[in-house]
Write a structure and sequence with these properties.
Blueprint lengths: L1 E4 L2 E8 L10 E7 L6 H7 L2 H8 L2 E5 L13 H5 L4 H15 L2 E11 L1 H12 L6 E5 L10
Helix pairs in contact: 4-5
Length: 146
């Protein structure tokens, strides 16, 4: 899927559970890949899609620009270009809420490495849109993106 976020076209992969019923509010999990990986790599290397099918949740894999995220000065390309990846995460959520029956009380974020840092940034900066966040192999960097 492609959406406009800020002035950029951004992409994400979406997995809809096999038993999705648009009449039922459905939880949403955003999974952010690590730097130098991609949405397709994270989708392939996790068991989120079969889990989404068995537990009935929407799974979305946002795609970082140049395979990275703006989580602070550590990540030069996105940081120097002032990419607003938190906004991108919010735009993905809003887009899905327009077209799917997303349970707004059960939106979760996770990620690997720098993707985990972005999941934390999203949850900390917008706690009303994130029921919980988790990360693998991640930390918080300073200075944070503005």
């Amino acid at each position: 899927e492609t959406i406009k976020s800020g002035s950029r076209l951004r992409k994400f992969r979406l997995h809809v559970p096999s038993r999705y019923n648009p009449k039922n509010a459905t939880p949403l999990l955003l999974a952010f890949h690590g730097t130098s990986a991609s949405a397709a790599v994270l989708e392939r290397e996790t068991s989120f899609n079969p889990r989404a099918d068995s537990m009935d949740f929407l799974e979305v894999y946002p795609e970082g620009l140049h395979r990275g995220w703006n989580i602070g000065e550590c990540c030069r390309c996105s940081f120097m270009k002032n990419v607003d990846d938190v906004r991108f995460g919010l735009d993905v959520i809003r887009t899905l809420q327009r077209f799917m029956n997303v349970d707004s009380t059960r939106i979760y974020a996770t990620g690997y490495s720098d993707g985990g840092s972005l999941a934390y940034l999203l949850a900390c900066n917008h706690p009303r849109v994130s029921a919980a966040a988790s990360a693998v192999g991640s930390t918080r960097y300073d200075p944070l993106p503005k």
